[in-house]
Amino acid sequence: MSELxxxxxxxxxxxxxxxxxxxxxxxxxxxxxxMLCVAYLTFAERKIIGYMQVRIGPNRVGFFGYKLWxxxxxxxxxxxxxxxxxIIPTKANKFLFLMAPxxxxxxALAAWAVIPLNDFLGIADEVNAGLxxxxxxxxxxxxxxxxxxxxxxxxxxxxxxxRSSAQIVAYEIAMGFALVGVLIAxxxxxxxxxVEAQQGNLGFLDWFxxxxxxxxxVYFISGVAETNRAPFDVAEGESExxxxxxxxxxxxxxxVFFLAEYANMILIAALTAIMFAGGWYTPFPAAMVPxxxxxxxxxxxxxxxxxxxxxxLIFFLWFRATFPRYRYDQIxxxxxxxxxxxxxxxxxxxxxxxxxxxxPWFD
Amino acid sequence: MLENYLPVLVFIVxxxxxxxxxxAMGWMLGPTRPDEQKLSPxxxxxxxxxxxxxxxxxxxxxxxILFIIFDLEIAFLFxxxxxxxxxxxxxxxxxxxFLGILVIxxxxxxxxxxLEWE
Lengths: 363, 118
Hints:
- The complex is a heterodimer of chains A (363) and B (118).
- Chain A is built from eleven helices and no strands.
- Chain A has 363 residues and is mainly α.
- In chain A, helix 3 (94-110) packs antiparallel against helix 4 (130-152).
- The longest helix of chain A is centred in the first third of the chain and has 51 residues, at 2-52.
- Chain B has one domain: Up-down Bundle (Methane Monooxygenase Hydroxylase, Chain G, domain 1), CATH 1.20.58.
- The chains are: A mainly alpha (363), B mainly alpha (118).
- The interface between A and B is large, with 89 and 70 residues.
């Protein structure tokens, strides 16, 4: 009897360990390309904003003596930051000071667990409360900012953290209401089912951006504000409070904050693609997709998810190159007095559309 | 059910580990040459005037309180939004009453000036 128990126990343990290995491999397979995307997003930002301002941007650092339009720049930046001193100010609370960047990065990465990449790929994509998890884990990101600002024990950092957390919190409400609109339209919290609810024969006209247009705009602008990107970057505000909450961070500790910010941008862009732009579905009507290799290229697939995410990411960079920084009272007015009324009204409109089965989205 | 969340847990742990490993690498590869000036809080080159744990504007606190109220209401809307197709027009009417009360509170806040920042 005990022998049998041992055998079963051994097998159970073996299977269990195998499952963990599988999960870890899956996560690594997702995280390595993600980190590369983050690195090259910083490069794309400098390059694209450079061209928008009639400059060339970084173009010197390449590989093995070839310049390659400066493609080696993010690698060189990472290596440089790695060899820089991590300064911990004497007055700072050391444990919290080092915890803050880790919290920022962990929350920015962990939200990717529930993101479906296409109709079968994803780490924990069958979780039935996916959107709730995303909302919860991205809300935790504000702790990274506020702990960094408080533990630095510096005035600039403190002011930056206060501004940033009030701003993030204000836009989170508009964001939450926009998400409720998506839930009404899709009838599910699972991100894959949200994408599948946007399937149809009309291509991009079937996606939720059309019936939820005000919510889509509010969600994306709130996303820009949540990630503290220009024109909502008063938290950094280099012309007034130098660099805001991470003014006392240097070397790798700063790099981790930087990575978290860009990972959050990619996350917001990916979520916008999933909830409003049909995830991995092709924008072409079903009748236009031919058979064969060309059909694979035009038809639905993970490449469309990547293209849409990149498309929304360009907007983050474009905003930064175009708009001057908002004043803080303007930011608060936009969040509370414009976005919240719009989203509340449109929630009721969406609910009526769903109950009245307005086609082609809700029939 | 709950085993679906195992990858999520592993992901959170790995996310934290990545941050820790990067910090540790920076710690090991970078130099450590502290001096008194370098380790003082940054204040544009001046000696810091007073402690950074200073008084701050009460409006930040107000924003936090308003956030809790609204976020709670969003949490109430979540389950309703999922089952809207099942609860139908009756559910819609019930939630309209709830949203109506919320809007009355919102208008009160607005008129009271709680949303003004200046």
